[in-house]
Each structure stands twice: as structure tokens, then as C-alpha cells.
Amino acid sequence: MTEPDQSERLAQLEARIDALKAKDAPKPHQETHYSQAHLAWRMVIELVVGLLIGFGMGYGLDSLFGTLPIFLVIFTLLGLAAGIKTMMRSAQEIQQKTVTTPDEGADEREKDGD
Asked: Which family does it belong to (predicted)?
């Protein structure tokens, strides 16, 4: 083999090794933080969407029947209850995921005494 061919193969091997090391590298702590923020926004959006759907249905029924805002109040409260139920279901799902897959940084914190 010629010398340039061997150095080229060595460079390719080093690039492949670096790529594999980067793939298995632990995630920075900030990505976990963004993940938690994403879950919090998901829960807030579920609550607000439940309220808005209930409000819309109640307003539509009141407009259709020409009644006082009785349907508006009833369906807004039902939307609130549905939003809270959906939010609690999401929280339970998140809790089950964290129980089955423990935090990756937990071992490092235990080692450091945190």
C-alpha cells in the first residue's frame, strides 16, 4: 500500500470512531429542561383547549336557542372538568414514563453526593 492511501484510511477510521462516540454521548442537562418545559406547556394547552371548546359549545347553544348564558356556564364548567381530566391523565402518563425509565443523570448525581 502507498503511504497516502494508508493515512486516508486512518483518517476515515478516526472520523467513524468520533461519530460513534458522539452518538453515545450523554445529553446535556439543558435538553432535559426543555423537555420538562414542553410537557408543562402540553398540560397547560390541554386545559385551555378544554375550556375553549366548552365555551364555544355553550355560546353556540345559547345563540341557537336564544337563552340566557346558562349553556355557556354549564359547558364552560364541563370543559374545565374535561381539561383537568386530560391534564391529570397526561401527568400520570409522564409519571409512568419516568418510573420505567429513570433519569440518566441520576447515577452521576449519586456519585457526586448530590
From this structure: Belongs to the bacterial AtpI family.
